[in-house]
Write a structure and sequence with these properties.
Mean pLDDT: 94
Strand content: 25-35%
Helix content: 25-40%
Distance between the termini: 44 Å
CATH class: Alpha Beta
Shape: globular
Order of helices and strands: EHEEHEHEEEEEEEEEEHH
CATH superfamily: Class I glutamine amidotransferase (GATase) domain
CATH topology: Rossmann fold
Number of strands: 14
Length: 246
């Protein structure tokens, strides 16, 4: 039997991948390679359609406001229907920072309502106050794991993201601001659709979460993945936790 392959589609990789978030894809590729798991990476830019059945994970990072507005309109027009179909069949969608904002219904940016793809019920408004910046740690509970885990990273966003009634956050804020600066919620998770403000980048600081994504993508339990020598990864995670005050 041939080894499984994790098929990843990076959405707007040239426009929506700031704050070193390309490192997320690099870490996924390396952890797959170290285990003998295949890794196939494709990109989809402006005007390019996507196949909802061709990928196990769709990744959308963050970008500058001008680029985010361009991608928002294109996401709805050329990729929205396919993303909904992919999520409906259980494909993973991971959105970081600006990507989180585009998962919802709209992003109020000045006098403009930037459309979202509507995979989850949330809306974002550019706040009048200071940007929410700093190290952050959240507690999350994910299927297949034997209890809550900590995600640690960095947040830098002017938008305040509000989850509609019935929508669940990705995690509970332990340190940092989260979606709105109050309320204790960070990110969003609806089944296989996950959004978070944590970057800088996210996965190299939280290798356990990268492994959860890999396991989910190939349809196995996280605990069945081949163990790796994670001394450096564990040190990176511990440093991110300390930076956040844990």
């Amino acid at each position: 039997m041939s080894p499984p392959t994790v098929r990843v589609c990076a959405l707007y990789p040239e426009l929506m991948s700031i704050y070193a978030d390309r490192g997320n894809l690099l870490l996924l590729e390396r952890r797959c390679a170290w285990r003998g798991i295949g890794f196939a990476l494709a990109g989809a830019g402006l005007g390019e359609a996507i196949d909802p059945d061709a990928h196990d994970l769709f990744y959308l990072g963050g970008g500058q406001d001008r680029d985010q507005v361009l991608c928002a309109h294109d996401l709805v027009a050329t990729k929205g229907e396919a993303l909904h179909a992919a999520a409906a069949r259980g494909a993973l969608v991971l959105a970081v920072c600006g990507g989180l904002q585009l998962l919802g219904h709209s992003y109020r940016l000045g006098d403009e309502d930037v459309p979202g793809v509507g995979l989850v019920d949330l809306h974002t408004v550019r706040g009048d106050g200071e940007r929410l910046i700093g190290n952050v740690a959240i507690e999350v509970q994910l299927p297949g794991l034997d209890g809550p885990r900590v995600l640690a990273g960095f947040e830098n966003h002017g938008g305040r993201t509000h989850l509609d009634a019935g929508e669940q956050p990705l995690g509970r804020v332990l340190r940092g601001h989260g979606n709105t600066g109050d309320g204790g919620a960070e990110g969003v998770r609806r089944h296989s659709v996950i959004g978070t403000y944590l970057h800088g980048p996210l996965l190299p600081k939280n290798a356990w979460f990268a492994d959860w994504l890999v396991a989910t993508a190939i349809g196995v339990e996280p605990g069945t993945l081949m163990p790796l020598d994670d001394r450096l990864e564990d040190a990176a995670h511990a440093a991110a936790r300390r930076a956040a005050g844990l």
